[in-house]
């Protein structure tokens, strides 16, 4: 059963790394960033596919946590936040983060049907999903959160996202500046 524990921890960490990369690509997309030889649509597709890959790793993460008899996590605990008998608060945060991510992916897949304004309103949830996932990992990780193998990548993710958000706030793309001036 230790294998399930390691698999759950590893897939949770990989999901955090993938979610971080997804957030970073999303921020660079809003900044109209382009790289030589990489058209913007490639970055957009990479952003979408990383979000889907994140969900795949979360399925394994959650499944192994439920299958592992140590914590006694039930399937209902993975859908309804804050009802688990095992680390209720921290597990509940994980459920909230996953549900926000599912909403982001679902509305992105339905973007042409729900309209840009609705999609954008839901997509702002990404700025809540990521920190909730980070807090979940740090809180539920117990003593592991003090180990280098878990702490270093988590702090790296935090540093990258905070840096990207500062860049996003301080540097407004020319197209957004023009749009703001036209609407005033």
Q: Which spans have pLDDT < 50 for at least 5 consecutive residues?
A: 177-184
How large is the share of residues in beta strands?
Answer: under 5%
Major sheet details: none
Shape: globular
Q: How large, in whole angstroms, is the Cα Rg?
A: 18 Å
Nearest-integer average pLDDT: 88
Which secondary-structure class do the elements indicate? mainly alpha
Secondary-structure element pattern, one letter each = HHHHHHHH
Q: Tell me the number of helical segments per DSSP (H or I, 4 or more residues long).
A: 8
Helix content: over 70%
Question: How far do the termini sit from each other?
Answer: 61 Å
The number of domains is 1
Number of strands: 0
Give the helix/strand layout.
Layout: H1 2-30, H2 40-67, H3 88-109, H4 111-114, H5 116-123, H6 126-140, H7 148-170, H8 174-183
Helix pairs in contact: 1-2, 1-6, 1-7, 2-3, 3-5, 3-6
């Amino acid at each position: 059963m230790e294998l399930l524990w390691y698999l759950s921890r590893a897939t949770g960490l990989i999901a955090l790394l993938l979610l971080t990369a997804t957030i970073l690509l999303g921020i660079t997309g809003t900044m109209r960033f382009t790289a030589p030889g990489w058209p913007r649509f490639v970055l957009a597709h990479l952003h979408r596919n990383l979000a889907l890959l994140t969900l795949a790793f979360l399925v394994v993460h959650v499944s192994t946590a439920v299958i592992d008899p140590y914590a006694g996590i039930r399937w209902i605990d993975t859908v309804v936040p804050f009802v688990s008998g095992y680390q209720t608060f921290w597990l509940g945060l994980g459920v909230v983060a996953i549900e926000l991510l599912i909403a982001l992916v679902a509305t992105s897949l339905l973007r042409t049907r729900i309209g840009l304004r609705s999609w954008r309103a839901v997509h702002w949830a990404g700025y809540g999903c990521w920190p909730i996932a980070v807090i979940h990992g740090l809180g539920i990780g117990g003593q592991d959160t003090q180990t280098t193998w878990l702490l270093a990548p988590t702090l790296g993710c935090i540093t990258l996202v905070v840096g990207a958000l500062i860049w996003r706030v301080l540097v407004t793309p020319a197209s957004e500046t023009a749009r703001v001036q036209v609407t005033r």
